[in-house]
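[scheduler] slot 2 assigned
[scheduler] job type: sequence-to-structure, two independent chains
[scheduler] chain ordering preserved from manifest
[runner] begin chain α
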Amino acid sequence: MFKVGELVMYGGMGVCKVSKIGRPDFAEDDGTLYYFLEPLYKSGIFYAPVDNDKISLRKVISKKEAKKLIDSLDTIEWEIFTTPSIQQLSQHYQSIIDKHDCKDLLSLTKSIMEKGVDAQKNNKKLGQIDKRFMKKAEDLLYGEFAAALGMDIDQVGELVRGKLQS
């Protein structure tokens, strides 16, 4: 169980702070406790049942882990995924996003960046699906790194993009 004040990664929603544990007004009085989750980089509040193992809810990585991942960016393995099917491309990208793993998100980010470089060399543009999932991966990744490192999310983005592009 997470504690009030703790930072967590809530699925595809990103970094949230546990602001309260209790029962929201809309919930039935069946004894179920909920985390009240306040996103760090968005407005609003999310409610997640404390005992629900179907949702992805985990602690934000440590500062040490974040630094280690950033320092190892040049060794992260990646592979450009191509398919003529937009549906298969979306499913492939979403399966990586759904793992909620920083190393996998870095690999996805690097592969889409390289796909963009290849497209540019051929006087083409990166597809909308690629752009959308790149943004999603970066938002999750940079948000978690920023929270772990105590940095601004834009600074983290510049740092990671700079290292990935070198």
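[runner] end chain α
[runner] begin chain β
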Amino acid sequence: MKKADFILIAVVIAVAGLMLFFLYGLNGNAGSYVQIEIDGKIVETLPLNTDITHKITTDNGGENTLVIKDGYAKMTAANCPDGICENHMKINRNGESIICLPHKLVITVVNENDSDEVDAVS
């Protein structure tokens, strides 16, 4: 490898490190609630500080199980064909989400003061 290759690798690692810092360092606050959104409408807001197992049923026959435990939310069961939402890591940071596209279901972590606000971008 040439000197330029090492410089390029160092720059790529530095940029990746900065991106991770901004993603997790600045927006790394743990959220207070999870919002359950079905087909674009918020149907329920649950606290992250209470351990519960919550069954979610959608109009298109979807059945998902959301488990909130130790301040984290995780989708543990879903009857969708791909099951991607079940394989998603547990979430607890503000802005993180678990999405089940076949059921049009979005679980998003929010802070206390964000739970009723409208997103200005959309």
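[runner] end chain β
[qc] chain β: Strands lie at 33-38, 41-47, 52-57, 63-69, 72-78, 97-100, 105-110.
[scheduler] slot 2 released
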